[in-house]
Amino acid sequence: MLRLHMKFSELFYTIQGEGKFVGVPSVFFRTSYCNLRCIWCDTPYTSWTPEDKDITVAAAVEAITQYECKHIVITGGEPFIQVKELTQLSQELNQRGHHITVETNATVFAPIAADLISMSPKLRNSNPAPDNRFFKRHERGRICPDVIRQFLDQYECQVKFVVDSPEDLVEIKELQVEIPIPGETIVLMPQGMIPEELQPKQEWLVEICKEEGYRYSPRAHVEIWGSKRGV
């Protein structure tokens, strides 16, 4: 099983920039390829033009654990579309005592070894232009209520929504009721690739979080390094 090959784009040691573990030193292993096409994707090299590097699970474990860091973040792309490889990788890291966060768009469910499932269901603000060839597929697949429910039922979770405008709150509240999503798991963070995009959205987004009881998340890596890779 350790000879399984994964498609990945990068591996690096930094701090977690988002969510409940913001600021925690973490090793990021970024898989390549995604089943969605967000218009504002901040890692287009894993989705729109995916990089195609190969690594065995055994080599990935060796590369990740060389940093002697407790917190591991497996992200993408979409890790769950490489389910056999993800299952084996998470199992091997779990057996070595690591805290494992898996970041996912919550469109595919599989039982894996994880301490935190960090879901990021995609709102309508993620849709490509209607004339884009990916529009229909993205719109049809971006929200999977059954998958979100399975993760919520079986794992510790956070549900991160990327917010572009105050109007996005309507869709968030609809999903919270429909699925349902516990309010204490909901995390809102501003959409933006550079600090100048994030700053104007932060104040009104913090006010929404205060009013609704949601957690606010910065995007610390963007605030510190901008759109630079490997941070």
Characterization of the model:
With 231 residues, the protein is α/β, with parallel strands linked by helices. The protein has a single domain, classed as Aldolase class I (TIM Barrel). 32% of the residues lie in helices and 22% in strands. It is built from 7 helices and 9 strands. The chain has helices at 57-65, 83-95, 135-141, 145-154, 168-178, 195-212, 220-225; strands spanning 5-15, 25-31, 53-56, 71-75, 99-104, 116-119, 157-163, 186-190, 215-216. A 9-stranded mixed sheet has the order 3-1-2-4-5-6-7-8-9. β8, α6 (195-212) and β9 form a beta-alpha-beta unit. α1 (57-65) crosses α2 (83-95). The radius of gyration is 17 Å and the shape is globular. It starts with a strand and ends in a 6-residue tail after the last helix. The mean pLDDT is 97.
Overall geometric form: globular
Question: Rounded to an integer, what's the Rg over CA atoms?
Answer: 17 Å
Measured between the Cα atoms of the first and last residue, the distance is 30 Å
CATH-derived architecture: Alpha-Beta Barrel
**CATH superfamily grouping:** Aldolase class I
Oligomeric composition of the shown chains: single chain
The chain-level structural class is alpha/beta
Mean pLDDT: 97
SSE string: EEEHEHEEHHEHEHEH
CATH class: Alpha Beta
